[in-house]
Structure formats: structure tokens, C-alpha cells
Amino acid sequence: MEYFERPSGGEGAVLVHLSLRQHGQDEDLDEFQLLAKSADVSVLSVITGSRQRPDPKFYAGTGKVEEIAQAVKQLNAEVVLFNHALTPAQERNLERVLQCRVLDRTGLILDIFAQRARTHEGKLQVELAQLDHLSSRLVRGWTHLERQKGGIGLRGPGETQLETDRRLLRLRIKALKERLDKVRQTRAQGRAARQKAGVPTISLVGYTNAGKSTLFNRLSGADAYAADLLFATLDPTLRRIDLEGIGPVVLADTVGFVRHLPHQLVDAFRATLEETAQADLLLHIVDAASPDRQLHLDSVETVLAEVGATAPVLLVYNKLDALPDQAPRIDYDDDGRPHAVWLSARDGVGVDALLQAMQACVSSPWEQLVLAMTPHLGRLRARFYELGVVESELPNDCGGSRLSVRIQAPDLAQCLAREGLVRADVVLENDLS
């Protein structure tokens, strides 16, 4: 049963962008127009304005709504797109006045995802996100849903059509979550097998349209779809490559992030994003030529924190071809570790430097450490044994023990982060014996 309609491509749309002086949540108009382009929408007009705060009824003021209505009528627009998050009531009120469909920023992003999904898993994730978004908007424009079922044997008090649809919606959402849980389990088994075999995973993350897929193709020789569109990549792609001095590693291309990414998408794509959370190294691809570079960096870091990604991060400043005064290079931190790489994935300039930096980041030296295991750290102790890094254990009189381990720094950091600990909490000394 289909619960949502996916609008056909090429629709004529009026775009609405308002600057809110006291709101602090302004979106980027250029990015919004690129979102519309990515959704295969024909932009007929862009209406801008400014307000102190959103109007509770229409989000825009009544005068601005009249201006939008005139544009819709003159241009025969089929849909009005707002570069903001609208409440269900605001969408209903706007549709009633404008006499056409109204989509907010979240609805537009969901539609792009619906067009991009190719794999079975991707389609499940998109449908879950759409149904979650639709559940609070089910009454919009559907007055017949308020009627109760009629006919012989069905007259009188009973379930309205709207209540029936809401119940079916809840059942479908529950079924989708159960199927995605199985996907999560399958992915976890695959990750466990790779970890057991000692194959590191390197995930490419970054703002949408930063050039992740282009770089992924350059590194792996794959032919993943790459285009100058937002969310060109939706379904994750894994490729095995050989890294000199390290051996085989798994390279993962993931969905791009965007400012104020809808929570429905973060939740629905959690199974996919766990590939990022469990990676050994994150390549954070940044559009070096973008004027909003820092905003994009902050947005990606916010989403990474939401999914619990704790792996080391190597910044990759891409699109160096758009910055003629910049040469490819590696930036190092105070400890002499690679911190950032500047390159052009399109031209292949600086890719050798990236491979060198990746090798340095993945080939972490083994450390010999003595750890203080108190009784309440049983889960952490069990994890060290699972990894096979324990060399000896000496119990003490307090119910704990001194654990001698040989472990790589990223593995130690990941184990401690899961328990909310830092090195100083458990590391007694370097074991030099």
C-alpha cells in the first residue's frame, strides 16, 4: 500500500526564502536553489523577504502570502517550496490560500531522497523517513478522511477513515523499523568480520556536493554516480582497496550531510551511518572553494556527534582546481600527525599526498600499557579480551586488576569512548618490560 505521493519531476515551482532577524536559523538561498535543481524542479520565481519572527499562521506575513498567490496564479505554478521548516497547520493554511501544494525544506529533501534511492535498503530508509514526516500531516487536504465508514452493518459510531489511515501508517512504520533492524544486524556482522580479519574501514564523510563520490572513484577505481547535485549519493558504496604499507582496507562512500538535516533522515539512515560511527578513520571531505566552508564543517561535525562517531578525522580540502593560488599539500598537527590534505579529486592532483596521509593515520603504532580495572569496568575488561589484546592480568585486593595490554591507540580510544572514559582514567603506566 502506498501512503505517500512522489511528485513527478519537472514541476513548476515558486521558491520562498525569508530572512528572520531574530530567529537565528536562516538558511542559504543558493543552497535552496540547488536543492530545487536536485529535485528536478523548474524554478519559475524566487520570492524573498524578511521578518522579525515567523508568522504563526502562514510563516510569512499576509502581504507576502498575497504576493506568492499572485505569482502562483500568473505563472501557473504547481508547487510552492519554502526554505524553512513549516508546521502542519502552516502548510494547511498556505495550501488553502495558494490553492496548490506547499512543501517545506524537509519535504523537499525527503523528495530528493525518494528519487535517489536505488537499493532495497535505501528505499526502506526513505519510506520510513517520509512516513514519519507524513504522520503529522495526514489530515492535510483530505476532508473525506474525516467521514466515518458507512454502509450496511457499518453505520453508527466507529473508526473514521482518518483513524484507519493513521493506524495503518503506524503498522507500516513498525514493520519498516523491524526490517531496518535486520539490516543493522547484517551490517554489524559484516563489520565484526572485517574487524576480526584486521581490515581497517575508512569512511568518506562531508557536506553534500563536496566531491566525496568523485574522490571515492579516484581512490577505488569505482564508477559510483557523481554529479554536481545535492545528495547525488544516497546508497552507501563499499570498495576494498590496497593501501601501501597497510594492506587491504575498506573504503566507504556515504550520504552527504546538509545544514539542519531533518531528524527523520538521521534516524532512518542510522543503520547506514553506523558504518561511519564504527570506521577506523574518517576522511572529512570539504569544498575548499565554498564561501560557507566553516558552516559546512560545523554541520557535518554536528551529525557525526549525533551518530556517535569517535574515529580519528583527516580533513580533505577538495576542489583545489577552483583555488589557483593553492598548491596540494599535507598539513601536520603539533605531534607530527597528518591533520589536513589539500587536493583536487577531479584532476587527481594531490591524491598521492592523501594516500600517504591515510597510511600514516591508519598505521598507528602498538602501545604496551598497564590499565587499572576497577570492578565496575567489567564491560571494558571484556571488550579488551574480545579484541585479543590482553597479555596478562594481575588481580588486586579491591576486586579489580592490573591489565597488561598491547593495543593500537584508535582501538583504545574507541573502547574508552564507549564507556565515557579518557586515557588518564585507566592508564597507569607504559609497560616497558
- CATH architecture level-2 label of the largest domain: 3-Layer(aba) Sandwich
Number of domains: 3
Q: Report the strand count.
A: 15
Main pleated-sheet profile:
7 strands, mixed
Overall mean confidence score, pLDDT: 77
Give the helix/strand class: alpha/beta
| Count of runs of 4 or more consecutive helical residues | 14
Which radius of gyration do the C-alpha atoms yield? 26 Å
CATH class category of the largest domain: Alpha Beta
- The CATH superfamily name of the largest domain is P-loop containing nucleotide triphosphate hydrolases
**What percent of residues are in strands?**
15-25%
Question: What is the CATH fold-level name of the largest domain?
Answer: Rossmann fold
Label the overall shape: globular
N- and C-termini, Cα separation: 67 Å
What this model shows, in words?
The protein has three domains: 12-103, Rossmann fold (3-Layer(aba) Sandwich); 199-362, Rossmann fold, CATH 3.40.50.300; 366-425, Alpha-Beta Plaits (2-Layer Sandwich). It is 39% helix and 22% strand. The chain has 14 helices and 15 strands. Strand 10 and strand 11 (338-342) form a beta hairpin. Helix 1 packs parallel to helix 4 (105-116) and helix 4 (105-116) runs antiparallel to helix 5 (120-134). The radius of gyration is 26 Å and the shape is globular. InterPro entries: G_HFLX_dom (IPR030394), GTP-bd (IPR006073), GTP-bd_M (IPR032305), GTPase_HflX (IPR016496), GTPase_HflX_N (IPR025121), GTPase_HflX_N_sf (IPR042108), P-loop_NTPase (IPR027417).
